[in-house]
Each structure stands twice: as structure tokens, then as C-alpha cells.
Amino acid sequence: MNKQYEAAVIGGGIIGSAIAYYLAKEKIDTAVFDGGRIGEKTTSAAAGMLGAHSESIGDFSVFFPFARTSQRAYAALKDELYEQSGVDIGYKKGGILKLAYTEEDQKNLEPLLVQPTVQWLESEDVIYMEKEVSPDALGAAYIPDDVSVLPNRTCESFAKSAQALGASIFENHPVYSIEKQAGNYIIHTAQGDVEAKYVVVATGVLSNSLFKHLVLSERLSPVKGESLIVRADKPLLKHTLFHDSCYIVPRNNGTLVIGATMVENDWSDTVSLEGIQFLIEKAKTMMPAAAQLTIDRVIAGLRPGTFDGRPFIGRHPEDKHILVACGHYRNGILLAPATGQMIRDFILEKDIPSEWIEAFRVDRRQLVMA
Amino acid sequence: MNKQYEAAVIGGGIIGSAIAYYLAKEKIDTAVFDGGRIGEKTTSAAAGMLGAHSESIGDFSVFFPFARTSQRAYAALKDELYEQSGVDIGYKKGGILKLAYTEEDQKNLEPLLVQPTVQWLESEDVIYMEKEVSPDALGAAYIPDDVSVLPNRTCESFAKSAQALGASIFENHPVYSIEKQAGNYIIHTAQGDVEAKYVVVATGVLSNSLFKHLVLSERLSPVKGESLIVRADKPLLKHTLFHDSCYIVPRNNGTLVIGATMVENDWSDTVSLEGIQFLIEKAKTMMPAAAQLTIDRVIAGLRPGTFDGRPFIGRHPEDKHILVACGHYRNGILLAPATGQMIRDFILEKDIPSEWIEAFRVDRRQLVMA
Amino acid sequence: MNKQYEAAVIGGGIIGSAIAYYLAKEKIDTAVFDGGRIGEKTTSAAAGMLGAHSESIGDFSVFFPFARTSQRAYAALKDELYEQSGVDIGYKKGGILKLAYTEEDQKNLEPLLVQPTVQWLESEDVIYMEKEVSPDALGAAYIPDDVSVLPNRTCESFAKSAQALGASIFENHPVYSIEKQAGNYIIHTAQGDVEAKYVVVATGVLSNSLFKHLVLSERLSPVKGESLIVRADKPLLKHTLFHDSCYIVPRNNGTLVIGATMVENDWSDTVSLEGIQFLIEKAKTMMPAAAQLTIDRVIAGLRPGTFDGRPFIGRHPEDKHILVACGHYRNGILLAPATGQMIRDFILEKDIPSEWIEAFRVDRRQLVMA
Amino acid sequence: MNKQYEAAVIGGGIIGSAIAYYLAKEKIDTAVFDGGRIGEKTTSAAAGMLGAHSESIGDFSVFFPFARTSQRAYAALKDELYEQSGVDIGYKKGGILKLAYTEEDQKNLEPLLVQPTVQWLESEDVIYMEKEVSPDALGAAYIPDDVSVLPNRTCESFAKSAQALGASIFENHPVYSIEKQAGNYIIHTAQGDVEAKYVVVATGVLSNSLFKHLVLSERLSPVKGESLIVRADKPLLKHTLFHDSCYIVPRNNGTLVIGATMVENDWSDTVSLEGIQFLIEKAKTMMPAAAQLTIDRVIAGLRPGTFDGRPFIGRHPEDKHILVACGHYRNGILLAPATGQMIRDFILEKDIPSEWIEAFRVDRRQLVMA
């Protein structure tokens, strides 16, 4: 293990891997430390929807432009990453049909429908597009740009591309502590110590211990998401169906993902029978034919929740060489590119939109309270 | 491949493997031909309950004594097979609590309760024995003798024990046809021909093609059973719960099986979302805490159904050197030893209770009709 | 099950699925019958190299133009199939480096090197392209057009595209026999009978029983291929390495395939320790760093071998409504499109190059002998 | 989560689970905290040999009596644990044949052969017992008492038995730090804080961070072990074969384990191709027929190595309420009962053989040096 790096990224999920990619592109000597294997935890349990629109409900002022920047980045990344790494990210067009069953549902879609990239479809148009959708739906917001990718492939593609550009990836290297020493940081890992000029904390819901260690007062809380990977015996869906936080995503590998539950403060990564029951009910509401889908496997992961639903992306309040990038909740895959770019810009001291800096800074709660 | 055998058993599921064991014990030179791997189909999808009592409802005259003989055989087999093969069959004591929720349920249990081996327990006694049982249960028939085994281990143990006693097992040997030649049978397989003096058809629900080929007019129809293999995070059940054809079986490997659906005329071995939903509902009815169980995997298999629910075990009506042993429906694991003994006795021309011969003969429908 | 089809394809591996696709495109009402699940046997054990050049050694006159036609078809199919089915076939550029270690190796490459699409690279150029290749290699034939796909995805994409165009796919429908009746064929399956005007036998190495049934004198013999699916902890290879019938194929899903053994007359689909040992040796010869690759899983499948190494594609000698498409040996994935097109052209009575008809007809051995 | 316990065991592998069992039996209110799932790491990669004799070479004075005590405990535990938990530990008789190929091998076996429980067998007697053993073996030390168990079942059985006796098991609870407060310990976990009177560190090779935190100067170093789980198509071995640190263990579930490599300072849990190659070579040396075994899956785990090869079992030198039980290297399964008993006796302040206290104390190196 090379003993000195310019940047040490702690955590090799989708966020840490994307950061490493953007840093390596700038020839910043970067190392990623993951306690297990790249992308094996929360990342691998994601559905991979790039739902810039569908996830922005209630936050079109800040979240949406940030998410949209990230979503757009993927259009170029899909070829760029493949070229670098040889690993295809499974980018799949089609977009999302966000279904409405009640007038209240329709009302909730209104802020979405004012976007020029979103279109209202009446029930018959929905069924024309996807004939298995429940006839009970009154209609849907159709969002062609909310495409999807395969999450663990995307993570692997970021990581291998970063390696191809010179970054080092250390798996099975849990980080115990970080120590300031003569202006640099000593990072203590199970396999020895390394030194770095910048440290990026990208450990998702497992960041609490490092937060405490770095005297950051916020904490992340897990919101477990359980999903079903299923198969159909014939072509069934071309678009993702979405309703009431749940979805059915057709993937480019022939499977569909039905997700996801929201189990608060559960640190396990098992899938319970009541979770499965909930998901099957939801799927049948969207598409009655879901009853005949066959199960392939189940997945579960811990979304890193924050007090206000927005991620922490920014500098440590007391030390600008320590950066934080975690708390992406339901949107880690979507926000990875914009997060990687933002961390890169902090390190290179480039301009970053001030509203993003404010919205995502780790001490925003205290600032508001003060 | 040795070209001549005294007995050729077609099918290496639990029935064919048990038959091979009993023949090999008598030093009959036996070969088993399976189209795939030993026990990989219906056998591997069974729960392994030895429900001599619980499955006899409506047939205490014939089915019960036969099933009881078989159940009792396992008590000795568990050591005998382990000694021969080194493979443990996972015999687990505890027995079954057959729950009653309504007066009708209770009435249905009456024929069972007259058995000296069955005891009625009031609700509070049931909950004393198993504290997670639903308080809605009025009580239960307690059947200590209806223990369980691990089905694929039992099948493997029969097969390896048969080998240890001299039998040959040929996996990946689908049998295409059987031809009579000079008093013996030529068995045509994908890998060449062999000759045998006796032929035993033990191919479960896949027997239709051989039945047609052997001019037997009966047909087997599949009743697909889907089950869930689940885990609990603490010790939960010591006894199998049973209600309304469904059950929760605690196994000696730490898992529990929730089974099983009954899907008629479905030849697939996939598990559908509606099947899963049904099983979770049933499990919660028996034990509300089932909602928190976590899923390990799902299994499905095709039970071989017959016109009257009883297996076909006996000689071909026209040719006593051709024997049939299939159609065991929900009870293949339970009935394997008694079936193996009965086929052995047909070949050795030993006495067999005449009511069993009559009840299980393959041409019984025509005889009744004639 | 609809009872009448224009064409019944027996076998839903890569060959049967491709045929169904080409027939469905012509609006021929087609049904595929598979004994298990689509693509689960030999197809799923293939590496997916489209080795038109690398596999043509010794047969540039007939095999090569046929294989090359098929290989070229994939360039368009990759988008066409994705559009129809939503399933990506995992097309991966890069091509093959066919390595030479001895003068004899070099000599064997000569017929390949006269092709304008193949280029000789000296050792240093090989290592410049792929720095982990063994320095013992004298050089390599570089074949950019011999790209690769993901076999089971390709099969699924063909099958789902065929369905999207109107074809029916029946899984778990083993076919027992075929009967001529009033000009049409009755196909007897485990789940009932159907009628068809044309029958296509595409059951790979399992065709022997149907061949016998259809009074075809040829037989297919299995050549088992075992492979390892492995992972590297960093980007390792961009091109497939090939030497002495073995290869290391980097896939677009981040894994590499090391294949394959050639075990004659073995009908099992297990992977033996000696097979694994052989593959690791071979891989290390091509790339010493292979020692540090980590195993993901193993696969095995039965290549359908023919007496002369060429497939059987053509009409039954006695009955032009019965077509045969099997025996593709090491090249099922590569040859699927051209085979599908050829079967389509037989049915539509379109022109087919006569040298292909002669080279692949099922009774070619007798014709030569006569 | 109950906030106060008498004893907190950190780590739920075989060692922590066994300790919890012995404490719970004494009605000590015990909680186990595991960062992931019970027994999923090193424990699940063990072969399960209870090699009290075969592993004592070079340490018959201290290690042997301790290991022998532990081995003997299993004879009773197998029924006791099953009774409590319903989970069978897979105890398998047969014993070990420790093979000798050279005179040097024979010489190395001498200290073993003076034990009354070990017997020398000449080559022909070995082959009489196990006919597939290589005829190159000069003979073997036969150790009937060195039986085996299934490691993860044993761990689960200890943990569930502990629960049945009142212990609490918390999975997915990584422990960050331990703090002394008013005579008790506050244990900080990802899911909150708990208080305990006694703390037991049983985190195997992952103990380094806690060791540092608790100001213990020793460190554990990983020695990765890779193994193959294989199957035979007929009964093959009744006894474990052992030679030169490698072994073939027949299990009571029908599989065999070929193990294990010794890769120093490798923290990954993947299985490399060179590891596999090494194991196959070793297996063939012991039993040429191993070449035909078929692979089921591979496993790997990190043995916790110590400076002198003996475990750390004892009190913290500065604080007798902190106990350590880690560093069991190759012998975690074997030593779990004796370790659990010893930790119990420390807490209950019962007598413990002083030579065990001295041999296993965590500060033994400094004492010697001092």
C-alpha cells in the first residue's frame, strides 16, 4: 500500500466511487478505502432509477436542479465509463409513469406537471403505452428523462474507471480513525496507516462513528429498503411504474425490481415477510398482472437518512480539508455524479452554486437555529 | 456402464432412491436412471413432514396404516442410512399441532382424535407449548409421531446407501423407451442401452410419457407446490403448525418451511408473487409473529396427482416384471420406505397386504368401473 | 395453449430462440417448446465469443462465410433486439488476440492471417495492447471483429423479441413425440398436444431421441465444456485472449470467463476438480496474473457434437416440413442468427447458398458414402 | 434494546456464541453484539474438524489438554444444544487419518503416536479403511476421537441455545467504543449505547481496533484460509484425510471440504485461482480420485493469528472486568466450548488451571520479555 495520497475517500459505495472517478480525472492521486467490497451494501440494493423529477416533489427549488444536473451527467457517463472500464452501466431509456389513482394523487403531481419535461397522460393513454397498468389509474405524469441504470454495475464502472485513471481502490480496509498530523491526515485502517492531504467521508449510513470522531454533531439514521427482483415470462413493461413511493422498474437485464419498503431505524439487511407482502400489494395496485410475476431474489439496503431529507455534501465546518458526502437517502445512484463533481470542485476550489453549498452543508441545522 | 441389471429403476427422486435401497439390501443388482440429478426436482421442494396422521384425513382405512408403517420405518432408517452413507437425514422430533379455528375445523379433526396417538389440546395448552401460536386458535390436535426429515438429504442418503450396498446410480440418463426382448427389457437412454429383468417406473409427475409408452391408461397431473424457506432471529417453534393444508415446519438446520400452495396443472417450477402472498397470509393466521420472519429462499415442485389421490404402486396389469411406483402427491417423503418395501416384495414375490395391492394398483379405476 | 401454429420450434436455447425471432419477423405464427426454461442449459454455459475468424481454422471455405454472415448480423441485432425486448445482449467490442507461443502455433495461424480482417502483432505490440499477456508469447493474430455477447441475455432477448412480434414461448413443455396427421404434425407434449405445419428440431445435444423418432440416422454426442467465471480487482483485459482452444473473455458486466474444457461423452453438467485445474493452468499460460483472479462461480454445458464438426441445418431428407437445426458444437451463439435466417428461408422457400445447404444437410454423410 | 446487561460479549462468531451459551447457563444476563450476522465470517469458512490431536503437534503440554477438554465437551453438547435450540450441530464420527508419505512425515507423527488415543496404521490397513487413499502413503496415524461438526450450524445452535436460556443476540450492531463509567462499561454501538458489568472481546481477527482502544499492545494478524466444498457421485470417504496442514473432511450433509490455504496478511475473503490450484493438488496427493470430485462452492475466512499461535483468553491486565477471547487461529470451532467455560469461570471467579491462564493471557509476551 502506497503510504501517501492526495485524497483519501472513505467508503466505496456509489458515492465514494463516483468521487474517486472525478478526482482521478483531475489527476488527483486518490485512494478509496472500503470496509468490505465495493458497492456491496446499500448500493447493491438500489433500484437504479434516475428519478430527478419523480423524487423532487416538495423540493423543486434546490434538489431538482442538483438532481437534474446529475441525471444529465449520466447521458455522457454511460459511454465514458464503459470506455474506461469495460463495464457497462446498464443505462435504460423508457422513463417513469407516475400514476394517480385519486384526485389527491393528481394534486400531488401538480408541481411536477409544470416542468416542461413532464406530461400528463389520461388513463387511456397510459394503457395505450403500458397495457398492463391498472385501469383504476386516473392517469399519470409521464417523465421520459427519468431513466434507469444498474446500480452495482454503475458503481463498479466508476471504481474501475477511477483505477484506469490512476486511483487505488482498497477493499476490506475498514477505517478506524483519522488523525491530524503536521497539516496532513493519518488514516488508520485494519491493514495499516496511510497519509492524505484531503479526506472524504462517504460511508453512507455507517458514517455516524466517523462523524462522532470528527466532532460533527449530525447523525444519519437508517431507513431500510426491501425490494423484490422478479421475472416475467414475456415482455411486460417498457416504462417504470411509480406510485406512492413504490415502483416497478424494468431493467435491461430482463428482470424487474419491485421496491421499496421504508423501515425506519432497522439496521438489518434481511427481508421480512411483511415487507414482501407490502410490496406485492403495491405492485398489484399498479399492475394487476404482477400477481403472476415469479420471484428471482430479494435485496435490502440501508438508506442513509438525514434530519431534513437532503444529503450532507461539503466541508467540515472547522477543517476544509475534510469533506463529507453522505446522507443521500433514496437518491444515491441519481446524485452520485453531481456529488462527485461538487467534491472535486471543493478540493480544486472551483465555483460551486452557493445555494447548493448552503442546502447541503453539514452544519446547516445549527446555522438555521442560531 | 454395466450392460445388465436385475432391476432398473427409472427415476431417482425419493421414491426411486428408496426402492433402490430396499432392493440393494436384498442383493438384487439394481441400477437407477435419472434424467438429471438425484432428488433435484419434486423431492427437493418437499417440506419433509412425515404426516402419517395429519395427511390421512378421509382415508384412515387404507392410507393410514400404509403411511404409519412407512413413518415407523424412518425411526430405524435414520441410523441405518447414516451408517451406510454418512449422510444424515435430519430427523427432527416435535410432532405436529393441527390447529382448529372454527367448529368446522374441530369437526374435521374428529377422525384423527380417535387415534390413540393423537391428543386434543385446548387453546391455552397449545399456547403453553408454542407461545407464538395465534390466540384465535380454539385448540389443536397434537400428533407427536408426525415428525419430519430433510427431503433432499433423505433422498441422497437412500441413494448413497444403495450404492454402498452395490447399486449403481446413473445421473443425467434420461430414459427414452423400454423394449421387451427375449423376456428381458432393453432400456434406451441418452447414453446408451441397458438390459434388465425388472423395470420400475418411479418418475413422479413425469411418468406420463412412459405410461403412454407402456400402454397404461392413467395419467398423472401436476399440482405445483410453492414454499418459503425462512429464518427467525431467535428460537421460535419446536412443533410443526398445520392448518388448512398449510404448515410451518421448524427444521433441524435452523430454517423453517412455510408451505405449500396447490396450483393445479401448472408445469412450471417458479414461485409466483400470488403464491408467496397466499403463504404469508396462511403463516400469519397460524402465528402472527410470522410477519417478522425473514426470507432465505423459495422452492417449488410438482406433486404427482392421481385421479383419486392415492399413489400407483404395483405391477403392470399385463406384465408383472414391470412395476409402477408414482403418484405420491403430497406424501412422497412419508411413503418412500413403505413403497420401497412393497416394490421389493413384489419382486421377491413375498406377501403384501391385499388391501394395499388393491388400493394402489394402477388399473383400479377400470376395475371399479368394470 | 392455442392448438394450432404455423411453425413449432422444439427447443428454446439460443438456436431455437433465434429461429423463432426470424420466423416471427415474417409474421409466421410460431410456438417454441422447451422442456425446461429458455436458455438454461448449453446456452447459459457458453462464453459468448462471436469467433467467426478464430473458430474457422481448417474450414475457411464454408464455415467462415456462414459464421461471418452471422457475426455481422449481430451488429444490427444488438439494437434491434433491445428495442423489441428491452433486454440488452451485452455486445462487447475489443476482439480477440489469438496467441502464438511456438512456431507451430504461428504456422497454425497462417490461414487466419491471410484474411484482411486479421493482423499479426509482434510480442511487444501484444503487450502494449494488453500488458498482462505472458511475455512468452511470440505474438498474436489480432481479430478486432471477433467481439462477444452475453449468451443467456442474448437468448432471452431473442425469445422476448419473438414474443413481442407474436410468437408463443412454452417453457416446461417437454416434447415426447411428433406424429404426422393429414399433412400437419401433432406434437405431443407433457402438457397436451398442438398442431403445426412446420416442425423445427432445435434441441441441441438432446436431439438424439427426436432424431431416432424421426428416422434420422445421425446422432449428436456431447462434448462437455466447463468454464470459470472470475473477477479481477482492477481493470485487466480489454481483449479476449485465445490459445489452444482456451480463452479468457472480458465481459461487459465486469466478469471474465475462462473456458473451456472438452470432455467427450460426458452427459453431466457438473464441474470437476481436474477440469478446474486444467483451466487455471491454461489461463496462467496466457496471462500469469490469472493466478490472482478470484472465482465467482463455475458453469458447464454440453456442446452438441457432430461427426464432422459442422452443424445440421436443413430439411429432413424425407419430409421438407420437418427442419433440423442442431449440432452447433462450440459455436451456437455465433451461428444463431445465420441459422435462424437459413431456417426462415427454407420455410419461405427463398434462395439459400447451395454450398451451405450441402455442407449442413443432415444426410451429408450418407451422400458422401453413397 | 434493554439498556443494562451483566455481560456484553462483542462478536457473535463461534467463540462469542459459545461464551454466551455458557454464561446464559449460569443465569448471567448476557448480550452478544455482532457487526453483521451471527457466524457469517470466519466461522462459516471453517471445516469443523475437532482436531484436538491432529492440531496439537508441537504443543502437547498445554494446547492438547485444553483442546481435548473442549473436544470432549462436544460429545455432550451435541444433544444439549439440539434440545435447547432445535438446531443440530452435524456431529460426525469417523475420525482422522493423518497420512505419512515420507520418513520425515512419520517422524513428525511420533509425538502423536505416543497418545493412547492414536494408532499407527500401515499402508494396507489405511487402504482397507479407505480404499481411495493414495497408495503412496506409507501409513497413517489414526485418531478416532478427532470427529467433526458443521461450523455455522454449531454457532447458530450455541446462539439460539443461549437465547433460549435468556441471552440477547444483537445482529448488525457494530461496536465503536467502550467507555468506563462509574464502575460499569458503556458500549457504544451503531444502534445506541448499552451498559454492562463485564465486557468480553470475541471479535476474532477484527479485534485489533478494540485492542488498541483498550490499550492492549498485541495485535492479531489474518491468515486467510480458502476451501472447496465438493461432492462425490458415490460414497467415498468415512474418515477425514489429513496431510501437511491440508485435509479432506466428509460431512454429514453429503459434501466434502477440501481445505485450507494459509495466506498471510490478506484481509480479503475471496478465493483465488492459485488457492484453488493448490488445494486440488493437495487433495489429489491424498486421494487421486479427488480429480473427479465436482465443485459445489468455495469459502474463505480470516483465521485470527497471534504471535505464538496460541489464543488470547483471559482478563485485561489492568481491568479484570474486561475479558478477551480471540486469536484461535485454525482452531476456533474446536476450542469454543473450553473457551466459553474458561471465560465463565473468570467471571464467576472459579478455579482455572493455572497453566491455561498463563499460556493464554494476553500480556504473556511482555511477561516473558520482562
Compute the CA-based radius of gyration of chain A: 20 Å
The sequence of SSEs of chain A as H and E is: EHEHEHEHEHEEEEHEEEEEHEEEHHH
What is the 3D form of chain A?
globular
Number of domains of chain A: 2
CATH architecture assignment name of the largest domain in chain A: 3-Layer(bba) Sandwich
- How is the quaternary structure best described? homotetramer
- Beta fraction of the residues of chain A? 25-35%
Report helical residue fraction of chain A: 25-40%
Taking the alpha carbons of the first and last residues of chain A, their distance comes to 44 Å
Largest sheet of chain A: 9 strands, mixed
Number of helices of chain A: 10
Using the coordinates shown, work out and report the CATH topology of the largest domain in chain A. FAD/NAD(P)-binding domain
Mean pLDDT, all residues of chain A: 95
What order do the helices and strands come in, and which of them pair?
The structure is a homotetramer of 370-residue chains.
Chain A: E1 4-10, H1 14-25, E2 30-33, H2 63-85, E3 96-100, H3 103-113, E4 119-122, H4 123-129, E5 139-143, H5 151-164, E6 168-170, E7 175-181, E8 184-189, E9 192-201, H6 208-213, E10 221-231, E11 240-243, E12 246-250, E13 256-259, E14 263-264, H7 273-286, E15 294-305, E16 312-316, E17 319-326, H8 332-347, H9 354-360, H10 364-369
Parallel strand pairs in A: 1-2, 1-9, 2-6, 3-11, 9-17
Antiparallel strand pairs in A: 3-5, 4-5, 7-8, 8-9, 10-13, 10-14, 10-15, 11-12, 12-13, 16-17
Helix pairs in contact in A: 1-5, 1-8, 2-5, 2-8
Protein name (chains A, B, C, D): glycine oxidase
Pfam families (chains A, B, C, D): DAO (PF01266)
GO molecular function (chains A, B, C, D): glycine oxidase activity
